[in-house]
Amino acid sequence: MKKLAVLLLPAILCFAFAACGGQGNEVFSGPKPGAESSSTAGEPILPAEYDTNNLYSEVIDPDAELIEYGVFYKAPLGEPVFVVNIGRTSPHFNIIGSRIYYADCGTLYSVDLQGKDMQILSLAGENDDGIEIQQVTDYDNDWLYCRATKWEMITGDPVALDGLHRVDTRVRVAHDFSKWEPLESEG
Predict the structure, then answer these.
(1) 158: exposed, middle or buried (C-beta count within 10 Å: 0-12, 13-18, 19+)?
(2) What percent of the chain has pLDDT over 70?
(3) Which of the listed ranges 47-61, 116-130, 134-148 does the model predict with the highest average pLDDT?
(4) In a 3-state reduction of DSSP, which class is residue 94?
(5) pLDDT exceeds 90 at position 148
(6) CB within 10 Å: which end of the chain, N or C, has fewer?
(7) d(Cα 52, Cα 78) in Å, to the nearest integer?
(8) How far apart are CA 93 and CA 17, in angstroms?
């Protein structure tokens, strides 16, 4: 059984890395590779102010080999307007104030409602536990509370093999991404 796990682990890691497009190697960086905004030649397609209840996520190209989700604005009249590509791992996003927050491949993203001003927070290499943010679950005035995963050594479990496993955890991140901290596990 352990030999099977040793043989499958590299394949699983390669698949996960390929699915995420190799992202997450930088803590803060510029626009997400492949992220497109809703503007052409610097002019926004979206109105300066609009009803954020008209934002929704949907598969960008259902016929594509790799599924990617996007946030779209449903205009009162006319076709939906593409705002931002939110990646391959989850169609979930949060609107907090004047920004859209979402996670993709363990990295947290924030973009303005026009799909332009993007901020990126990747914790890869910034912590010993390999914490990866999965989704924003709650927020208050200063903090985003996120579901995350981390590496943890598990031994003596009757079901899992002894070794490192991804386990659920929670972190909180400042709205401006200036700081983050793990939250103590309950229980």
Answers:
(1) exposed
(2) 72
(3) 134-148
(4) strand
(5) yes
(6) C
(7) 17
(8) 22
Residue type, 159: V
Sorted by sequence, the CB contacts under 8 Å of residue 43 that are 6+ apart come out as none
Two structure tokens written together for 34: 């492949």
Specify the 3-state DSSP secondary structure of 177.
coil
Give the chain's radius of gyration (CA, Å): 18
Per-residue HEC secondary structure of 111-173 comes to EECCCCCEEEEECCCCCCCCCEEEEEEEECCCEEEEEEEEEEEECCCCCCCCEEEEEEEEEEE
Tokens of 103: 């996670």
CB within 8 Å of 141: residues ≥ 6 apart: none
Q: Taking residues 4-14, what's their average pLDDT?
A: 42
